[in-house]
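Quick illustration for those who missed Monday's session on complexes.
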Amino acid sequence: MTATLDLRVQVLPHGRGLPLPAYATAGAAGFDLICALPEGEALTLAPLARAAVPTGLAIALPAGFEAQVRPRSGLALKQGVTVLNAPGTVDADYRGEVKVLLVNLGEAPVVLERGQRIAQMVVAPVTRVHLVEVGNLDETTRGSGGFGSTGLDAAAISG
Ligand SMILES: O=c1ccn([C@H]2C[C@H](O)[C@@H](COP(=O)(O)OP(=O)(O)OP(=O)(O)O)O2)c(=O)[nH]1
Ligand SMILES: [Mg+2]
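Prediction with deoxyuridine-5'-triphosphate bound:
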């Protein structure tokens, strides 16, 4: 499989002595972020506890791009651990260490270890908008309906 879009992203050598992350397969949308706790240290996330987990990664995204920090489905399904602010946003002008805000929504404590893959990073283009103030917005069929507004007529008929 060939990539449809290739982007060079500058990265510092891994800040905590681990290998740089890599895409797991040719078609993977994201590369896994690794828990970069100090050697010999582990972190126990009690149920409903949260933590900013270091990844050792510091990047310089080109202008016009962002990086999203997304959960790994396996970790979420098996242990209830997900990214609290998903998708986390890494701005193009951020130069600090990327951290993963994990929360344990499971019923049992979860131990996070150095080297463990804890989330994934997807780089995406950003649309920069110019807000143009107007007196009225154009009319649409939906109008201001939302939050479950569609299909209500059909439900009323069948119900
Ligand atoms: O999951 C995340 C989310 C953010 N960041 C870093 C990169 C990002 O560019 C910066 C700010 O993130 P955000 O804008 O989401 O946080 P904020 O609460 O608005 O802080 P700030 O006022 O610094 O923008 O923090 C991470 O490392 N991981
Ligand atoms: Mg912000």
